[in-house]
Amino acid sequence: QVQLVESGGGLVQTGGSLRLSCVASGRTFSDYAMGWFRQAPGKGREFVARISRSGGVTSYADSAVKARFTISRDNAKNTVYLQMNSLKPEDTAIYYCAAARGTSATYDYWGQGTQVTVSS
């Protein structure tokens, strides 16, 4: 089992920044690729970003997200981050981190989520 706990969400104005953190426990953190997802009110959960086990490979939902968000990880701290800049009201959502074993595309473990609200 892997336990994931997100933090860093909150209320921010348009154009502001937030850094989300997700701390993992229970298994060897570096065995897992990590992802960030979000779910806006009334919408389904969507992929935001993913980072490989070593941190050497990252991917993003699209170029617009890649231009404003940065995913990173610190394996010594068992933590994955999502730096979000130039936030927009449409970024308002609950943000979840998730863990995928190795190179699997399936995420086996999920955190409880952290709320991000961007005011206009």
> Would you tell me the structural class of the helices and strands?
mainly beta
Number of separate helices: 1
Unreliable stretches (pLDDT < 50, length at least 5) are none
Oligomer: single chain
Separation of termini?
40 Å
Overall 3D form? globular
| Annotation, overall tally of beta strands | 11
Arithmetic mean of pLDDT: 97
* Approximate strand percentage: over 45%
Helix content: under 10%
What is the string of SSEs from the N terminus onward? EEEEEEHEEEEE
What value does the Rg take, in angstroms? 13 Å
Short structural description:
By secondary structure, the chain is mainly beta.
What would you note in describing this structure?
By secondary structure, the chain is mainly beta. It has 1 helix and 11 strands. Strands 2, 4, 5, 6, 9, 10 and 11 form a 7-stranded mixed beta sheet that branches. The longest helix is centred in the middle third of the chain and has 6 residues.
List the helices and strands and how they pair.
Blueprint: E1 3-7, E2 10-13, E3 18-25, E4 32-39, E5 45-51, E6 58-60, H1 63-68, E7 69-74, E8 79-84, E9 93-101, E10 109-110, E11 114-119
